[in-house]
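Reopening this one. Same input as before:
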Amino acid sequence: MTWILLAAVIIAIVVVIIIKLSSKDDIEPTNYPYQINGGLFSPAERSFFGVLEQAVGVDAKIFGKIRVADVMTPRKGLSRSEWQKAFNKIAAKHFDFLLCSNDDLSVICAIELDDSSHKSIKRQERDDFLRGACEAASIPLIQIPAKAGYVISDIRQLLAPHLEIQEKPIQIDAQQNTSSDKFCPKCDSQMVMRVAEKGTNAGKQFWGCSAYPKCRHTEAINV
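Same output, byte for byte:
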Protein backbone atom coordinates (compact mmCIF):
# COMPACT_ATOMS: atom_id res chain seq x y z
CA MET A 1 0.00 0.00 0.00
CA THR A 2 2.89 2.31 0.79
CA TRP A 3 4.33 2.15 -2.72
CA ILE A 4 0.89 2.78 -4.24
CA LEU A 5 0.44 5.88 -2.09
CA LEU A 6 3.94 7.07 -2.98
CA ALA A 7 3.26 6.55 -6.68
CA ALA A 8 0.03 8.54 -6.42
CA VAL A 9 1.87 11.44 -4.75
CA ILE A 10 4.56 11.41 -7.46
CA ILE A 11 1.93 11.43 -10.22
CA ALA A 12 0.12 14.35 -8.55
CA ILE A 13 3.37 16.33 -8.33
CA VAL A 14 4.13 15.68 -12.00
CA VAL A 15 0.63 16.84 -13.02
CA VAL A 16 1.00 20.06 -11.02
CA ILE A 17 4.39 20.76 -12.64
CA ILE A 18 2.97 20.17 -16.12
CA ILE A 19 0.06 22.52 -15.45
CA LYS A 20 2.39 25.25 -14.20
CA LEU A 21 4.69 24.88 -17.17
CA SER A 22 1.70 25.05 -19.55
CA SER A 23 0.42 28.20 -17.84
CA LYS A 24 3.85 29.78 -18.13
CA ASP A 25 3.94 29.02 -21.84
CA ASP A 26 0.54 30.66 -22.31
CA ILE A 27 1.79 34.03 -21.09
CA GLU A 28 4.95 34.08 -23.14
CA PRO A 29 5.23 37.30 -25.23
CA THR A 30 5.24 35.25 -28.42
CA ASN A 31 1.65 34.19 -27.72
CA TYR A 32 0.46 37.80 -27.19
CA PRO A 33 2.31 39.99 -29.73
CA TYR A 34 0.79 43.32 -28.66
CA GLN A 35 1.97 46.71 -27.44
CA ILE A 36 0.23 49.85 -26.21
CA ASN A 37 -0.42 52.64 -28.70
CA GLY A 38 1.00 56.09 -28.12
CA GLY A 39 -2.35 57.76 -27.46
CA LEU A 40 -6.05 57.55 -28.18
CA PHE A 41 -5.99 60.62 -30.45
CA SER A 42 -3.61 61.91 -33.09
CA PRO A 43 -2.04 65.33 -32.29
CA ALA A 44 -4.63 67.05 -34.52
CA GLU A 45 -7.51 65.19 -32.85
CA ARG A 46 -6.13 65.94 -29.38
CA SER A 47 -5.91 69.63 -30.24
CA PHE A 48 -9.49 69.69 -31.50
CA PHE A 49 -10.69 67.72 -28.47
CA GLY A 50 -9.59 70.57 -26.20
CA VAL A 51 -11.54 73.05 -28.31
CA LEU A 52 -14.56 70.73 -28.40
CA GLU A 53 -14.54 70.46 -24.60
CA GLN A 54 -14.75 74.24 -24.29
CA ALA A 55 -17.43 74.53 -26.99
CA VAL A 56 -19.65 71.82 -25.47
CA GLY A 57 -19.10 72.71 -21.83
CA VAL A 58 -21.61 70.91 -19.62
CA ASP A 59 -24.24 70.54 -22.33
CA ALA A 60 -23.19 67.00 -23.31
CA LYS A 61 -20.63 64.27 -22.76
CA ILE A 62 -17.86 63.72 -25.30
CA PHE A 63 -16.59 60.29 -26.36
CA GLY A 64 -13.85 59.54 -28.87
CA LYS A 65 -12.99 56.70 -31.24
CA ILE A 66 -16.39 55.03 -30.93
CA ARG A 67 -17.08 52.12 -33.28
CA VAL A 68 -19.89 52.87 -35.74
CA ALA A 69 -21.36 49.42 -35.10
CA ASP A 70 -21.79 50.36 -31.43
CA VAL A 71 -23.93 53.33 -32.45
CA MET A 72 -26.06 51.88 -35.25
CA THR A 73 -27.07 48.44 -36.48
CA PRO A 74 -28.60 47.04 -39.68
CA ARG A 75 -32.37 47.41 -39.65
CA LYS A 76 -34.76 44.55 -38.99
CA GLY A 77 -36.33 42.64 -41.86
CA LEU A 78 -33.13 41.95 -43.78
CA SER A 79 -32.16 38.44 -44.76
CA ARG A 80 -29.25 36.93 -42.86
CA SER A 81 -26.82 37.53 -45.73
CA GLU A 82 -28.05 41.11 -46.26
CA TRP A 83 -27.75 41.84 -42.53
CA GLN A 84 -24.20 40.47 -42.40
CA LYS A 85 -23.18 42.42 -45.49
CA ALA A 86 -24.58 45.65 -44.03
CA PHE A 87 -22.88 44.98 -40.69
CA ASN A 88 -19.51 44.28 -42.31
CA LYS A 89 -19.60 47.75 -43.90
CA ILE A 90 -19.67 49.46 -40.48
CA ALA A 91 -17.81 46.93 -38.33
CA ALA A 92 -14.32 48.36 -38.94
CA LYS A 93 -15.29 52.05 -39.02
CA HIS A 94 -15.39 54.51 -36.12
CA PHE A 95 -16.50 58.06 -35.38
CA ASP A 96 -13.81 60.55 -34.35
CA PHE A 97 -16.06 62.05 -31.67
CA LEU A 98 -19.54 61.40 -30.34
CA LEU A 99 -21.70 63.76 -28.27
CA CYS A 100 -24.14 62.06 -25.93
CA SER A 101 -26.89 63.21 -23.58
CA ASN A 102 -25.87 63.80 -19.98
CA ASP A 103 -28.98 61.95 -18.79
CA ASP A 104 -29.02 58.60 -20.59
CA LEU A 105 -25.96 58.81 -22.88
CA SER A 106 -28.19 58.63 -25.94
CA VAL A 107 -26.46 59.82 -29.11
CA ILE A 108 -26.86 63.52 -29.94
CA CYS A 109 -24.55 63.76 -32.93
CA ALA A 110 -21.34 62.41 -34.41
CA ILE A 111 -18.35 64.56 -35.36
CA GLU A 112 -15.74 63.83 -38.00
CA LEU A 113 -12.51 65.83 -38.13
CA ASP A 114 -11.55 65.98 -41.80
CA ASP A 115 -7.81 66.24 -42.34
CA SER A 116 -5.88 66.05 -45.64
CA SER A 117 -6.38 62.27 -45.80
CA HIS A 118 -10.07 62.85 -46.55
CA LYS A 119 -9.11 64.22 -49.98
CA SER A 120 -8.25 60.76 -51.31
CA ILE A 121 -10.86 59.03 -53.49
CA LYS A 122 -11.04 56.03 -51.17
CA ARG A 123 -11.58 58.22 -48.13
CA GLN A 124 -14.22 60.28 -49.93
CA GLU A 125 -16.09 57.08 -50.75
CA ARG A 126 -15.90 56.13 -47.08
CA ASP A 127 -17.19 59.58 -46.07
CA ASP A 128 -20.07 59.37 -48.56
CA PHE A 129 -21.07 56.00 -47.15
CA LEU A 130 -20.88 57.24 -43.57
CA ARG A 131 -23.04 60.27 -44.37
CA GLY A 132 -25.65 58.04 -45.98
CA ALA A 133 -25.61 55.57 -43.08
CA CYS A 134 -25.99 58.37 -40.51
CA GLU A 135 -28.85 59.92 -42.45
CA ALA A 136 -30.64 56.55 -42.61
CA ALA A 137 -30.13 56.04 -38.87
CA SER A 138 -31.19 59.64 -38.04
CA ILE A 139 -27.81 60.47 -36.52
CA PRO A 140 -26.65 64.04 -37.23
CA LEU A 141 -23.10 63.98 -38.64
CA ILE A 142 -21.01 67.14 -38.39
CA GLN A 143 -17.87 67.29 -40.51
CA ILE A 144 -15.28 69.86 -39.45
CA PRO A 145 -12.14 70.62 -41.49
CA ALA A 146 -8.94 70.09 -39.49
CA LYS A 147 -6.79 73.22 -39.16
CA ALA A 148 -4.11 74.77 -37.00
CA GLY A 149 -6.53 76.85 -34.90
CA TYR A 150 -10.25 77.02 -34.16
CA VAL A 151 -12.63 79.71 -32.93
CA ILE A 152 -14.59 78.20 -30.05
CA SER A 153 -17.67 80.29 -30.79
CA ASP A 154 -17.73 78.94 -34.37
CA ILE A 155 -17.64 75.33 -33.17
CA ARG A 156 -20.32 76.05 -30.61
CA GLN A 157 -22.48 77.62 -33.29
CA LEU A 158 -22.20 74.42 -35.38
CA LEU A 159 -23.28 72.34 -32.39
CA ALA A 160 -26.02 74.67 -31.18
CA PRO A 161 -28.89 73.18 -33.26
CA HIS A 162 -28.14 69.72 -31.87
CA LEU A 163 -27.42 70.71 -28.27
CA GLU A 164 -30.35 73.15 -28.15
CA ILE A 165 -27.97 75.78 -26.82
CA GLN A 166 -29.72 78.97 -25.93
CA GLU A 167 -27.33 81.81 -26.56
CA LYS A 168 -27.73 84.74 -24.20
CA PRO A 169 -26.34 88.22 -24.76
CA ILE A 170 -23.11 88.77 -22.86
CA GLN A 171 -23.47 91.31 -20.10
CA ILE A 172 -20.45 93.58 -20.13
CA ASP A 173 -19.74 96.37 -17.66
CA ALA A 174 -17.17 99.16 -17.96
CA GLN A 175 -14.43 97.04 -16.39
CA GLN A 176 -15.03 94.23 -18.87
CA ASN A 177 -15.03 96.34 -22.01
CA THR A 178 -11.55 97.58 -22.87
CA SER A 179 -11.18 98.92 -26.39
CA SER A 180 -8.09 98.22 -28.46
CA ASP A 181 -6.59 98.90 -31.85
CA LYS A 182 -7.38 95.31 -32.87
CA PHE A 183 -10.06 94.77 -35.49
CA CYS A 184 -12.23 91.74 -36.13
CA PRO A 185 -10.98 89.70 -39.12
CA LYS A 186 -14.58 88.77 -39.95
CA CYS A 187 -16.45 92.07 -39.91
CA ASP A 188 -13.72 94.74 -39.31
CA SER A 189 -15.38 95.94 -36.11
CA GLN A 190 -13.17 96.93 -33.21
CA MET A 191 -12.17 94.12 -30.82
CA VAL A 192 -12.71 94.63 -27.10
CA MET A 193 -11.23 92.86 -24.10
CA ARG A 194 -13.83 90.89 -22.16
CA VAL A 195 -13.97 88.50 -19.21
CA ALA A 196 -15.63 85.09 -19.50
CA GLU A 197 -18.43 84.80 -16.94
CA LYS A 198 -18.90 81.00 -16.99
CA GLY A 199 -17.57 77.74 -18.34
CA THR A 200 -14.06 76.36 -18.12
CA ASN A 201 -12.59 79.81 -18.91
CA ALA A 202 -14.63 81.72 -16.32
CA GLY A 203 -12.68 84.73 -15.04
CA LYS A 204 -10.24 84.72 -17.96
CA GLN A 205 -9.90 87.61 -20.39
CA PHE A 206 -10.36 87.27 -24.13
CA TRP A 207 -10.78 89.45 -27.22
CA GLY A 208 -14.37 89.68 -28.45
CA CYS A 209 -15.90 91.46 -31.41
CA SER A 210 -17.68 94.69 -30.41
CA ALA A 211 -20.43 93.82 -32.92
CA TYR A 212 -21.65 90.93 -30.74
CA PRO A 213 -24.17 89.25 -31.07
CA LYS A 214 -24.22 89.98 -34.81
CA CYS A 215 -20.61 88.81 -34.97
CA ARG A 216 -19.42 86.19 -32.44
CA HIS A 217 -15.73 86.16 -33.31
CA THR A 218 -13.40 85.73 -30.31
CA GLU A 219 -9.64 85.37 -29.88
CA ALA A 220 -7.45 84.28 -27.00
CA ILE A 221 -5.23 86.87 -25.38
CA ASN A 222 -1.59 85.96 -25.84
CA VAL A 223 0.15 86.49 -22.54
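So the earlier flakiness isn't reproducible anymore. For the record, The two ends are 89 Å apart (CA to CA).
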